Amino acid sequence: MPEITDKTVEKIARLANLQLAPDESGRFSEQLEKILGYMHKLNQLDTTNVPQTAQARQGRNIWRADVVVPGLEREAVLAEAPDVQDYGFRVPRIIE
Amino acid sequence: MRELSAKQIHEKIIAKEITATAVCEAALQRIHSTDSQVKAFLAVDEQGALAAAKAVDRKLAKNEPVGPLAGVPIALKDNLCTKGFPTTCASKILAGWKPPYQATVVERVRAADAVPVGKVNMDEFAMGSSCENSAFFPSNNPWNQECVSGGSSGGSAVAVASGMVPLALGSDTGGSIRQPASLCGIVGIKPTYGRVSRYGLIAYASSLDQIGPLAQSVEDAAMLLQVIAGCDQKDSTCTDMAVPNYTEQMQSGIKGLTIGLPQEYFSEGLDPEVKAAVEQAKQVLQDAGARLVEVTLPHTEYSLATYYLIATAEASSNLARYDGVQYGLRAEADNLIAMYKATRAQGFGAEVKRRIMLGTYALSAGYYDAYYKKALQVRTLIQRDFTEAFNKCDIILTPTSPTVAFRRGEKTEDPLAMYLSDIYTISANLTGLPGISIPCGFNSEGLPIGLQLIGKVFDEQMLLRTAQTYQSHTDWHTKRPILA
Predict the structure, then answer these.
(1) B90 falls in which pLDDT band (50, 70, 90)?
(2) How many other C-beta atoms lie within 10 A of the C-beta of residue A67?
(3) Neighboring chain B residues of A13 at a CB cutoff of 8 Å
(4) Nearest Cα residue in chain A from B354
(5) Are the beta carbons of A43 and B374 separated by less than 8 Å?
(6) What is the pLDDT, as a whole number, of residue A60?
(7) How many residue pairs from chains A and B have C-beta atoms closer than 8 A?
(8) How far apart are CA B77 and CA B92, in angstroms?
(9) Residues B90, B42: Cα–Cα separation, whole Å
């Protein structure tokens, strides 16, 4: 059984860029432990040499002609952005 | 109007017995009078709908050709992008967002002259089995408003079952079309992975997601599938295989058809009343000329764990894009990472966070092999089960859901119990196979029961033929809930 401590939850939340409220963190560790415990069922199966299936249908890729077509209009895209400056998405400072 | 099928409405409109505008007004009227009870709609597009209906009437007045769904009102799940009209995925993180582009399926139903009347409720980001994870409100089951609609396409199922619209589009990642269809007593189809373009469908788990129709009858569902199926240059996972004529062979019966019954789907956890109704449905199909054989899908008990590892892993990656930069909600903070974290904390609901956490864990260093890779291997074993079973039969018959609609709040505190609602539907997503749910009875409390058929890859025709045969021998699909 996996043990999901508050510390593990904190680490996963950091990887997922999620800020958890103190009450969420405790609840998640309990719930994730239970759910992952259930998933341990899979260990009953010997999967040595079993290939992985990442896609339901291994069809061939569908190509389109390599022709330039217009993309989305810049104005339409920027109109939905939370913050815009000079034709770009404005974000908090990244470089000091 | 609500007694008419999509097909009948369409026929009456092209025969000029009624106008598309009158049909649209009746649908809007029905939404206004009943939606407060069942809460299917997140946004009604009254203006857009009337404009689309009038356009159909204008074409007909000029004797111009119209599309195969001309004048038929349709509801769209709110994870399908509608250009210039709000698309929220029932999440606060996208509240108010108006997509700058149209989903291919929306373009296709519009090109077929259907009349989209609005966007319907769902579990946030399609994560859930009861519509209780909508960030806005849950939808109610029209057969008993204290019960859930099922999910995640709950609004789609409720809008159709309540007679507001004859057709709806939903999406199905683990049963999200078939389970609410079953719980609301209507028809829902998850087509084969790759049959329908997903361009403009907001992604949850990309190796599992598929768009499909919900309707009162198999015939109506087939009409809508016909319109949305087929190759799209904008989705490289959508096949360029020709789309057959789905309605053509639908009436040809099922004499000589072999139906496989997987014993694993009739064992513990199955509600006795659901089991009895499905047993009866087997008999109906046998009497109609099908041969029943036992088949075995030995890895069934591992499918739920496999599904929830793969789906959450893919979700954790797909949902990384909601970071407050390009669209939707942004929470202010003084540096970029803090802005990401605060935006996601405010914008996502509990189940979405839980699944992102699960998926992130399963993909993280040290756990990848034990969880994610293991699940991909078991997925292979599950696929082999189905390949083997389909050597012995043409179609597989199971219950759609282990229970009828449950009470609101009954499973919200126990995520694992909620996940178990998907136990019979998820294999079709893991394998990419087509599945349909059709009504096959009611329990002693008057709640609908659904029957699931799973077909061979790209054999939607056989599914439709079998389902149509069943409906021609039964009248469950004609029962309607009573709403004030």
Answers:
(1) very high
(2) 5
(3) 357
(4) A28
(5) yes
(6) 74
(7) 170
(8) 16
(9) 8
Q: What band does B413 get if pLDDT is binned at 50, 70 and 90?
A: confident
DSSP result, B241-278: SPPP-TTTTTTS--TT-EEEEEGGGGSTT--HHHHHHH
Instruction: Tell me which of B129, B149, B156, B176 is the catalytic residue.
Output: B176
- Which DSSP state fits B373? I
Residue with tokens 């106008």: B19
Contact A16 B360 (CB under 8 A): yes
- What is the reported pLDDT for B22? 98
Catalytic position from the list B129, B134, B152, B182: B152
Identify the active-site residue in B77, B190, B411, B456.
B77
Tokens 């959508």 locate to B238
Considering only CA atoms, which of B152, B157, B192, B148 is closest in space to residue B171? B152
Which residues of chain A neighbour B387 with C-beta distances below 8 Å? none
Asked if residues B40 and B120 have their Cβ atoms less than 8 Å apart, the reply is yes
For residue A21, what is the enclosing H or E element?
none
Q: Shortest CA distance to B399 belongs to which of B437, B371, B447?
A: B437
Cα(B141)–Cα(B159) distance, rounded to whole angstroms? 10
Q: What is the largest CA-CA distance in chain B?
A: 70
End-to-end CA separation in angstroms for chain A? 45
CB B77 within 8 A of CB B175: no
Q: Residue holding tokens 């108010």?
A: B96
| Cross-chain Cβ contact A16/B356 below 8 Å | yes
pLDDT at residue A58 in the model: 67
Q: Distance (Å, rounded) from C-alpha A92 to C-alpha B178?
A: 44
The Cα of B457 is separated from the nearest Cα of chain A by a number of Å equal to 9
Q: Nearest CB to B376: which of A52, A57, A91? A: A52
pLDDT in tens, B311-320: 999 999 999 9
- Inspect the interface and report whether the beta carbons of B329 and A82 lie closer than 8 Å: yes
| Distance in angstroms (rounded) separating the CA atoms of residues B338 and B21 | 50
Q: E strand or H helix at A66, and its extent?
A: none
Write out chain B residues lying below 8 Å of A37, CB-based.
none
Quick one: fold of B6-259+392-478?
Answer: Amidase signature (AS) enzymes (3.90.1300)
Q: Do B381 and A45 touch (CB under 8 A)?
A: yes
Q: Taking the domain A6-44, which CATH number applies? A: 1.10.20.60
Q: What is the ipTM of this complex?
A: 0.95
Q: Do A81 and B327 touch (CB under 8 A)?
A: yes
Would you list the domain boundaries of chain A?
A: 6-44
CA distance B315 to A34: 20
For CATH 3.90.1300.10, list the domain ranges present in chain B: 6-259+392-478
- In which band, very low, low, confident or very high, does the pLDDT at B244 lie, cut at 50, 70 and 90? very high
